Amino acid sequence: MSAMTSSIKQAFSEMTSSNAKIANLQRDTVDNKAGVGLTTDFGVKISNTDNWLRATDGKNHIGPALLEDHHAREKIHHFDHERIPERVVHARGAGAHGYFKVFDDRASKYTFAPVLTDPSRTTPVFTRFSTVQGSRGSADTVRDVRGFACKFYTLEGNWDVVGNDIPVFFIQDAIKFPDVIHAVKPEPHNEVPTGQSAHNNFWDFVGLQPESAHMVMWTMSDRGIPRSYRMMQGFGVNTFTLINAKGERHFVKFHWIPELGVHSLVWDEALKIAGQDPDFHRKDLEEAIVNGCPAKWKFAIQTIPEGKEDTFDFDPLDATKVWPEELVPLEVIGEYVLDRTVSEYFPEVEQVAFCTSHIVPGIGFSDDPLLAGRNFSYFDTQISRLGINWEEIPINRPVCPVMNHNRDGQKRHRITKGPNYWPNRFDAGKPVPTNEGGFPDFPHVVEGIKQRVRTPKFQEHYNQAQLFWNSLAPHEQAHVIAAFSFELSHCDDPIVYESYTKLLNNIDFELARAVATNVGGVVPEKPLRPNHGKKSAPLSQVHYAPSKPAIASRRIAILVADGFNGTEVAAVRAALASASATTWIIGARRGTIKPGEGLGDSISADHHFEGQRSTMFDAVFVPSGAEHAKALAGNGRVVHWVREAFGHCKAIGAIGEGVDFIRTAIGMSELQLHATGSSRNVVVSYGVVTAGSYTAGSAVVDALTIGPGG
Ligand code: HDE
């Protein structure tokens, strides 16, 4: 997909998917290309935008630039003020539009909110994904939590679920948020590191704040390095409430389960992509949508009836705990789809502003202490980032009417006719507070003693960290050990890495031993506490593998040099395209690559071998062709490509002489590769798929689909 086709496809995606919010945004959307000529911001046409007005002698001498040049001054002034404060956390992000639909009205037993109960509705949504630690210009693939912030533009007002890709949080009480964020952000003396938690201050803090242990286990797992925003689960994390028509209340947690399964990069890939393509996740989201693969999630809820919340050995209002699905099953109630890219990043993705206190009738808060602080913080931060009228900004304004007596403030856009106070003497005082759809505050007894305390269940921090560890597959556990080893190796203060390796022994003895050995920590002699041995399958991302291998939206590199087999490449490309994968020709030069004699058509390479790396693709295919295979084998960059892809457990497919090349490149004796030539059978060994020739049944393609996905 060249840059040109990408922009055409993007325009097409914008034309085809529309909804009430997109229509609402059209009010402020201008097509710059449709203009009659270049103008100033005050609408006067411009004849010259390349030269500042000067005093000259009319011949060769150029004198001073004149302040009189209002056009030059406007252009520079505007430029001088283009930046706004970046988000204090979650500064780096990407976003897309879409819709949400429930399958039926089954959730009406919990809530009367139409967005969750009316299957005839399609609710427009906007989602912004983000990393937490890095600044706006940091890389996408760093080890971090990913934000998963969703705005539902419902007919009853905006409902924001400002979630993450990890179901628990580092702290239980909002008052600790500035501490945990200061600790993880770059250190104050030198502003290092960017996009990393691998530094003394973070590990110092989490070592002294053991309530973070559970979430730290998640961030050190493969969840911290997702392959794609489209392949992450989403979690509302905090406990909200649902209120039904009978006035009954349930505690609720919100979940998003990706259609493509939950997949991650491997750490070596994540590190390399951070340099090779820092926009990897951003581009992935855009590319999938413009290529006709909308990102899709099942939307699910977990509910606990009011009155049952004290029956668990954890407190359901503690954001450092999951509600294990064995105890509180998930109920899938709808589908969440992102099918439209943004038209301009700043007004949409940078200016979108979420607020946990944006809820609609039928949904309520709980006494989760983290949520209470968030409800204060989000509104507050938007004021310094966007100003008090932030809810009027096109991406943030609701699709339903907004009528009230709030007025003025910087950057007020709306012109409201009528009185600015209530009650008043005009038109029966309209707009008036109403019980017809008015937000009902749930009547709820509040009594007790004001104290700065945490209840006993809030003081247990290791059971669920251990549950998470126990539930991981062996390869996932190995990745956790490697991640801790990387992070703690970057801490040079022994107090820090020794403390943390001691803490790990509360979670698992073997984990603590392995990490302590690797990083020079205190290797424990015996466990600090017995392992309870419990597991919960849905905590492992292996649990979310799609029932059928899926290759849709995956990126396949096809390596070619002159003399390649064009017939095979055409057939493999067609088969992959029909499975909605994208193929990219990586060639000896960007431009036309010639096939071998009688071996089909020439092809135009999208990139030169130096232009891309194996890390940017999910699988690699090498066709047959003697001259081509020889050229590939003679090129160190290409040999490295194949070795690296193999090391990252990518699927590799090859045919005929391409198999010889793979054999040379990988040089693994235990790898069974199909012999060149004769037989048409396909051999799959260690994720490498090889065949004598391309078979009509596109077996190579079928086998390739099994491989990628990590
Ligand atoms: Fe946030 N968080 N947060 N957070 N958070 C912000 O709001 C805050 C927390 C999350 O794409 C800020 O608009 C406090 C949990 C996401 O625009 C700020 C506490 C979860 C985003 C803020 C938390 C999140 C933010 C910065 C502890 C997962 C990006 C900019 C009580 C459920 C939203 C902004 C976007 C952003 C405060 C904890 C997720 C400062 C005080 C738990 C996805 O207001």
From TrEMBL:
Residues binding heme, per UniProt: Y378
Molecular function (Gene Ontology), one example: metal ion binding
UniProt xrefs under PROSITE patterns: CATALASE_1, CATALASE_2, CATALASE_3
Entry's Gene Ontology cellular component terms: cytosol
Residues at the catalytic site: H90, N164
Class of enzymatic activity (EC top level): oxidoreductase
Keyword set includes Iron: yes
Highest taxon listed in the record's lineage: Eukaryota
Family designation: Belongs to the catalase family.
InterPro entries: Catalase (IPR018028), Catalase_AS (IPR024708), Catalase_clade2 (IPR024712), Catalase_clade2_helical (IPR043156), Catalase_core (IPR011614), Catalase_haem_BS (IPR002226), Catalase_immune_responsive (IPR010582), Catalase_large_C (IPR041399)
Record-listed E.C. numbers: 1.11.1.6
Function, as annotated: Occurs in almost all aerobically respiring organisms and serves to protect cells from the toxic effects of hydrogen peroxide. Catalyzes the degradation of hydrogen peroxide (H(2)O(2)) generated by peroxisomal oxidases to water and oxygen, thereby protecting cells from the toxic effects of hydrogen peroxide.
Segments forming domain Catalase core: 39-430
Protein name (record): Catalase
